[in-house]
Amino acid sequence: MSASSAINSFGARAQLTVGDASYEIYRIDAVPGAQDLPYSLKVLLENLLRTEDGANISAEHVRALAAWDPAAQPDTEIQFTPARVIMQDFTGVPCVVDLATMREAVVALGGDPAKVNPLAPAELVIDHSVIADVFGTPDSFSRNVDIEYQRNHERYRFLRWGQTAFDEFKVVPPGTGIVHQVNIEHLARVVMHRANGEGTVQAYPDTVVGTDSHTTMVNGLGVLGWGVGGIEAEAALLGQPVSMLIPRVVGFKLTGQLPAGATATDLVLTITEILRKHGVVGKFVEFYGEGVTAVPLANRATIGNMSPEFGSTCAIFPIDRETVDYLRLTGRSAEQLALVEAYAKEQGLWHDPSREAKYSEYVELDLSTVVPSIAGPKRPQDRVVLAEAKARFRTAVRDYITDADESGVESFPASDAPAVRNGISKPTPVTPADGPEFEIDHGSVVIAAITSCTNTSNPSVMLGAALLAKKAVEKGLRVKPWVKTTLAPGSKVVTDYYDRAGLTPYLDKLGFNLVGYGCTTCIGNSGPLPEHVSAAVNAADLAVVSVLSGNRNFEGRINPDVKMNYLASPPLVIAYAIAGTMDFDFEQDALGADQDGKPVYLADIWPSPVEVQEVIGSAISAEMFAHDYADVFAGDERWRSLPTPTGDIFEWDADSTYVRRPPYFEGMPEAPAPVEDIRGARVLAKLGDSVTTDHISPAGSIKADSPAGRYLAEHGVERRDFNSYGSRRGNHEVMIRGTFANIRLRNQLLDGVEGGYTRNLLTGEQATIYDASVAYQEAGVPLLVLAGKEYGSGSSRDWAAKGTALLGVRAVIAESYERIHRSNLIGMGVLPLQFPAGQSAASLGLTGQEEYSVSGITALDDGTTPRTLKVTATGADGQTKQFAAVVRIDTPGEADYYRNGGIMQFVLRNLLRA
Question: Domains of the chain, with CATH numbers?
Fold first, then answer.
């Protein structure tokens, strides 16, 4: 049904004339009470008005949203229909694999494969596959791209097939930019306009869901959107609305202006810390107030990008003059600019700093109080004031030092906060093949990476870094020889303005040569450390450090040799590369000496805001964006020359180790089987707090002795060609074996063991999690996972749920969940349960070695969702413990997905009935 044939219960359909063009719109103010709604809920209200059909979306849903009670807890479900879907290749490849498999399943069940086709614009940006293998050389970029194509040609051929096989599906080829930066610089419309098939053109807010949690970066443009799992994205592509509860909205008031010396990175780390403490998981965050006008668009995008790190569904800014100016700068047409401004003003979506909407909760920040900061060593919300970084590092490093004397006692008192140079120092000599010997120690910075969409979209911090590099070179400073230095901007525009400003040679001089336009170090694609550095780190078991301008620094994510990871602004990344160690005080310690032997401090090379702004004004123009995005989907000769399969049905290569047909639809009946209770289950993994999707499904390197590594070796893949888990997400055989394979995973069924291991409770022996799951499935034993707080935080990684399901896990029982992973589990037919409030596995005395049953699940077959289920744990001595686990199926739509065995099965059955 087209939107123009919507029921229009409120008489909201109207016309908007902009210049010579006329657009059909749905007026938000046609609904009583809508004028007082927050910006984000007005966007949702328009969405409901435009898609009202009397069934999935009724007048009652519209009234419920307009009558939203900010004080109430969410309990009203609505159906949100996003305007478009955006993907990156790590999550997009398995999405297209699923669509290709779904076409085959439709044919097998007697349907038309063409029914499996995107109904909304879908764009995929290949940005997660480049690895910084080569660095510090003028040809680093070209060599890394060559290696990328060699490793990934199977995947890229598959995506080129998808480009031709599916309507409304476009691919941005490798070497172009990071998905979120490409989104804000080119793909985002802010206001959509599309012919509705009835002779009129509709205008409506640009809304988006994406297969990357940092889709929220586009919130900085006033575009409502958030990250979803690949399986939810597939449903959205096929016309399924996103089921959600009307959320609580947190109003975040901004006042003042950033002081000199504070960067957008410092601002976003401060906001992340504030909102993590406040508690915004599952809520919308919306910025308002006089201070909004003082926040440049690039800074707004930086804040939006970090929404997953403070846990909110979105973190949105309203449309205003700054939005339109940014669209003009980035090369949008005059017609589009006029439409955005006219539509926003007509619909009450234009920011009025004097008007305050009603919010569920309120937070406030005076921007003038922000100070230089970093975050780490393992979570983005753990902000550290830069002036305290040295002391805080010396305290934190104790948790990463494993030195002990023969009696097993630590070589320093645990109650102290020892200096690295006083008590636990371990100077370790390193002899490179082509240079003088040097020493590294605990705290040595071995990776300094300017990477990730978070900051590389922001000219102020990127040019600030380049100006700092210029001043450092002019003072005679150099990067320490043990530091791997990389520059991976989010789009080609960054290197264009570096070149125009004449700053590229200074970055090159410090080793920050371009390594690629992609999500490198932040996603785990930092590439290996130089062999001599890696060998020394591992031989001495050093707690070395990475410093990156990214958004995530979880354990085991950045590099397998690096235990501690800190987020910092791009200028500070360069400063730490020069310092060479985290055991450094930028106020008191000199970075080196100039040509006259005088000490050089960070303050001597830090560029002023005036200097940065002058370069921004002279080096950045709209023509740059227009040129770089003129033919963004065409790609270079390498992309265009790839052989492309054709046809509606993909021809799978039986020998491929990248793209294989997954088993989701094998033997699927036309009607779902009855839901069953869980009996005789064993625990596959018992986990603690803050277990991220990186712990569950790592994206980085594949170890040779892991189940995935053995699988690849058995299929003739050389170790050097293993690539990463992220790049092999189109092969379920690799990904099942990689589930729970993070080298820093701590499974409490084992003592003192890190990595993807468990206790096979059928034999009592230690085994890899994959091998144990095979044994359990052969014995017909269902599996559970027990976990602590914030289970599944981090990236919107659908393989964290897919792998869990394919390992045979029927349910997860956690203290709390992050939003996306909980919904992904349901989307794969895995039941998310929650311990009763205030209780945990520990408080209930659960060891994880019991046998478990979960009863009451069958009530779902009656069309109801029970609030709690009875869990019984029976120990080896026959003693039982019982508790009422909370069912985290939060909406009727999610219950439908679970009853069908997953969201893909639900969508497929609906397509067959259509």
Answer: 3-68 (no CATH), 71-246 (3.30.499.10), 248-371 (3.40.1060.10), 385-620 (3.30.499.10), 678-698+757-913 (3.20.19.10)
